[in-house]
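Hi, here's the filled form for the chain we discussed.

Project: internal
Contact: R.S.
Residues: 278
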Amino acid sequence: MIDIEIKDFRRRVENINSLPTIPNNLKQISKIIEDPLISLREIGDFISNDPALTTKILKMVNSAFYGFPGRISSASFATVLLGLNVIKGLLVGFSVFEVMQNTMLGLWEHSLGCAITARSIAKRRGIKDYDDVYVAGLLHDIGKIILFLEYPNEYKETMNKAKLNNFTIVEAEGDQFVADHAEVGAWLAEKWLFPRNLIEVIKYHHIPQVSKNASIETAIVHSADVFMRAKGVGFAGDPFVPELDPVAFEMLKLSETDIKEILEEMEDFMVSGKELPQ
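And the returned structure, exactly as it came back:
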């Protein structure tokens, strides 16, 4: 196990902009979204000056998923339609896509599938800010990327330990680090000024029964996470499908028909939107 106090570990994680292994685009995006006074217009201008980001954002907002197929041509207008929290989440997600592919093959597909599924469940449950739940689904495993970038050898050892001992990745992380990926992800979400509910979902998505202020949203992302593993969508680092928390699932009151339709929506989007991150 890495010999470091949790306060020092957290400080190291939160000092993301100075980590030499962090991609430059994530460093830039991190600085922007940490500004408490940042406006949608300023974020729109930033996106407009980056052709790759502009393409990704426009592909997303013009998909049937958001209900504006082929109608949005301006990054600035897209930021207004999506809102601050969603656009911030997409910027972070897109900026680490290549890192996800290089560190844990299939993690992006898993994260995107989880986001789409979580959004669909949230809409069915009447959650007002269902796009915030989408962001939580997209970023729920962001801590894995940071741990891998900061401690590459140790994280490879963690993944091997999970595989060889039939551990969940969270259990293996607990043996190696003073905080697992869920807690690390929550630290970053807090640093990036995401809403408190979204931070709590990321932190407790493996232990949804602990969530007090965002219990439904946490149950949604937890269930979407397990659904994606069961469906074999991408790869999240576990050698098996973790158990679905029965209390969390009961809270959602999803019928077999609901689950079938939700997974069909996810599959349709994964096929039609598969080029989004490229």
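Let me know if anything looks off before we file it.
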